[in-house]
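Entry for the shared binder. Reason: the reviewer on the internal report wants the predicted structure included alongside the sequence.
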Amino acid sequence: MPPAKKRARAYDPVKIRAAVLAQFGNVRRAVGALTPGQLALPTRLAGWTVRDLAAHVAMAVETVGRNLDRDEPAKADLALLDWPFATGARAADISDGTLALAAAHPDLNALHARAEEGLAAALAGASGDRILAARTGAMTLADYLVTRTVELVVHTDDLNDAVEGLDIPYDRQALAAATRLLADALAVKAPGGATEVRIPPFAVVQCVQGPRHTRGTPPNVVETDPLTWIRLATGRVTWQEAVEAAKVGASGERADLAALLPLMS
């Protein structure tokens, strides 16, 4: 896991809390309208149906309250920018837990209602400085909630991909936070200033070792939209697929990011 030498950018805790609640609400309303046939559809996550994926989204927000109920660690040991690289080690456990949760809760509406109520209650009285004993490592609540925007946005996109015409909306603050965290994680993985990665309107980062530009147009530029970036960072699409589909613009000899992606597995 690369060390997070770069300092994480500041996120407005009030906006992040609102974004997490809003995006989960978007998912809950959309899933509540799905038919049994739609819930049984496969997703791009191997072995998961739409029902399984919807259960996982509930699990992703229920962890907030569950972690708050645990004893508080003495200190945080996982930096926000390290989180994207820490999730892969738990992939098998997450999959097993998701499938078990989906099997145990055939009524997804009830599961989502419980998750939404529990999330709101947990956030109502907790300080952002409270340290959580999360499975990936001890983090402040404020940082952990930023990670929830990634979970929610990524899986909203997975749901939209699985069900034709679903079109769950993206809360702007949730999409912005997810984009920025994953962009900053790229700069942690490949520190440097030779390449500028632009993800308008939310993020611009410098990365990759080599000559650093100081003025004018940088010699190596990558530009894409937020959802394409999130798909690249999480392995939903490959670099080659995105370039061939004209979803990514890349110019310069150090503008090929294929070897650096995905950031999360």
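Summary line for the report: The chain has two domains: 13-175, 190-260.
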